[in-house]
């Protein structure tokens, strides 16, 4: 089965206890279970608080030709280094779906801009963990 990389940025390891009114009560483990159950894809879910590690994983996606679901978390709003790496992914002809649990546009002003969106294949935001499930469904439709 083809592999999909599900990459999560800073503070998402705290899901479950982090601002549950915004992000819900589910943990990253719950997300992994939901994604694994929903698909035949080999779901490779990872989280890091390190920008460098996240960039390295995008390079790995290119080298292994894996589609990517990316929640860049706060890096969304200011990391040009991550944007450049995402550019390489989509430039290599791979799907990269930017996802967000919350709807950043309905939150503080600094969250309204994403430096990633313009180089992503597309964006899904505001549907809780369903944002990831919808991204997975889109990848399934396009990859097979
Ligand atoms: C987030 C939204 C970002 O603004 C925030 O910094 C996060 C999570 C989301 O999934 O809703 O860490 O990407």
Strand count: 5
User: What are the distinct ligands in this entry?
Assistant: 1,3,4-trihydroxy-5-OXO-cyclohexanecarboxylic acid
CATH architecture: 3-Layer(aba) Sandwich
Termini, distance in Å? 11 Å
Outline the biggest β-sheet.
Answer: 5 strands, parallel
What is the CATH H-level superfamily?
Dehydroquinase, class II
Category by helix and strand content: alpha/beta
Number of domains: 1
The CATH topology is Rossmann fold
Q: Which shape, going by the Cα principal axes?
A: globular
Radius of gyration: 14 Å
Q: Unreliable segments (pLDDT under 50, ≥5 consecutive)?
A: none
The total of helices stands at 5
Following the backbone from N to C, one meets helices and strands in this order, namely: EHHEHEHEEH
Can you put this structure into words, describing what you see?
- With 144 residues, this protein is α/β, with parallel strands linked by helices.
- The protein has a single domain, classed as Rossmann fold, CATH 3.40.50.9100.
- Helices cover 38% and strands 17% of the residues.
- It has helices at 20-23, 28-38, 51-64, 80-91, 130-143, and strands spanning 3-8, 42-47, 68-71, 96-100, 122-125.
- Strands 2-1-3-4-5 form a 5-stranded parallel β-sheet, with helices on both faces.
- Helix 3 (51-64) runs parallel beside helix 4 (80-91).
- It is globular, with a radius of gyration of 14 Å.
- The mean pLDDT is 97.
- Bound molecules: 1,3,4-trihydroxy-5-OXO-cyclohexanecarboxylic acid.
- 1,3,4-trihydroxy-5-OXO-cyclohexanecarboxylic acid binds at residues 11, 71, 73-74, 76, 100-102, 104, 111.
- Residues 11, 71, 73-74, 76, 100-102, 104, 111 line the site of 1,3,4-trihydroxy-5-OXO-cyclohexanecarboxylic acid (DQA).
């Amino acid at each position: 089965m083809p592999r999909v990389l599900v990459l999560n940025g800073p503070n998402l390891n705290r899901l479950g206890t982090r601002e549950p009114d915004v992000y819900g009560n589910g943990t990253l483990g719950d997300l992994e279970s939901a994604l694994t159950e929903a698909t035949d894809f080999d779901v490779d879910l990872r989280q890091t608080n390190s920008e460098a590690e996240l960039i390295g994983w995008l390079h790995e996606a290119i080298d292994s030709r894996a589609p990517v679901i990316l929640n860049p978390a706060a890096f969304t709003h200011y990391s040009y280094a991550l944007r450049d790496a995402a550019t390489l992914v989509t430039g290599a002809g791979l799907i990269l779906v930017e996802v967000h649990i919350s709807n950043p546009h309905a939150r503080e002003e600094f969250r309204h801009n994403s430096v990633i969106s313009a180089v992503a294949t597309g964006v899904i935001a505001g549907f809780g963990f369903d944002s990831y499930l919808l991204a997975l469904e889109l990848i399934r439709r396009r990859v097979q």
